[in-house]
Write a structure and sequence with these properties.
OB fold (Dihydrolipoamide Acetyltransferase, E2P), 2 domains, 5-stranded parallel sheet, 5-stranded antiparallel sheet
């Protein structure tokens, strides 16, 4: 008689659970204890806002997010988690904290399969079945191990596109409306800058620089807000502080540190790609 191969035990990792239903959190915690005994649940959240705060506090490897929660949905919480600053506030290195792996918990499967085909996040249907959760945990472990070994990129590159897709699924009949114009300060004047003319956005502590081929302007809107307001098919986030128009990318090279550097068409600016977003240019 053929017996299935034994599943190997998964190594230690840290996770945050977020679900507004206490019984669902308890059920998920119990199932996780069965399929991943070494997984440490460092905190549990009752809503999306709490989830963001707990992820910022504990910096887990994995976040299990219920898609539908009061206050912030799981999708909105994931967007904020993707924009969290490094734990070391004095560090300018965006790579001091990589994005956690995201697993969405949902009772709705009508759009989940298509949305998750990109593989940047996983999902589990409620109530979490042991075998399906085991498969998810094994996938997450492989991705974490590959990231530590430097053979795979973090989930950052296409996560925003996935979140836009999920958001549209939560609000059928209401396609997202993206910015068409940017009201920005140019010298002493206010100017309307067409979004399709923008080459890139770069933020510092107070302002975001809006760069076109002819104009350099300033706005007070941070990158973390622009990410949600710009079409992710047209603008890619390549760093916590940088968005670049896809059509403006002339090429990607590596500097002496091995970091990817984006060259911009018609401009001498060089844009650094942080480790969380290197998957956009896989193979470079």
């Amino acid at each position: 008689m053929n017996t299935p191969p034994a599943r190997t035990s998964l190594p230690a990792a840290r996770a945050v659970l977020a679900d507004d239903e206490r019984l669902m959190r308890e059920q998920l915690r119990a199932r996780l204890a069965e399929v991943w005994p070494a997984l440490q649940i460092v905190a549990e959240a009752k809503n999306g806002l709490e989830a963001v705060e707990l992820v910022q506090q504990h910096r887990p490897d994995i976040v299990f997010l219920d898609i539908r929660m009061p206050g912030l949905t799981g999708v909105e919480a994931a967007r904020q988690i993707a924009q969290l600053p490094p734990a070391d506030a004095t560090s300018e290195d965006d790579d001091s904290d990589l994005l956690p792996e995201i697993v969405f918990i949902t009772a709705y499967d009508q759009y989940a399969v298509e949305a998750f085909e990109q593989g940047v996040a996983d999902y589990v249907l409620k109530p979490a079945e042991r075998d399906r959760l085991q498969l998810t945990c094994e996938r997450i472990h492989k991705r974490l191990a590959a990231r530590q070994a430097g053979t795979d990129a973090p989930p950052g590159p296409h996560l925003q596109q996935l979140l836009h897709t999920l958001s549209a699924g939560l609000q059928p009949g209401h396609p997202p409306r993206y910015l068409q114009w940017i009201q920005a300060t140019v010298g002493q004047a206010i100017q309307m800058v067409p979004v399709d003319e923008v080459l890139f956005f770069i933020s510092d502590e107070k302002y975001t620089r809006v760069q076109t081929a002819q104009v350099e302007a300033l706005i007070r809107k941070p990158i973390k807000e622009l990410v949600d307001e710009l079409d992710p098919q047209l603008f890619w986030q390549i760093h916590r502080s940088t968005l670049v128009a896809v059509k403006a990318i002339a090429g990607v090279t590596r500097d002496f540190r091995g970091r990817q550097i984006v060259a911009v068409k018609g401009h001498n600016q060089k844009l650094e790609v942080s480790r969380s977003y290197t998957g956009l240019f896989k193979g470079m």
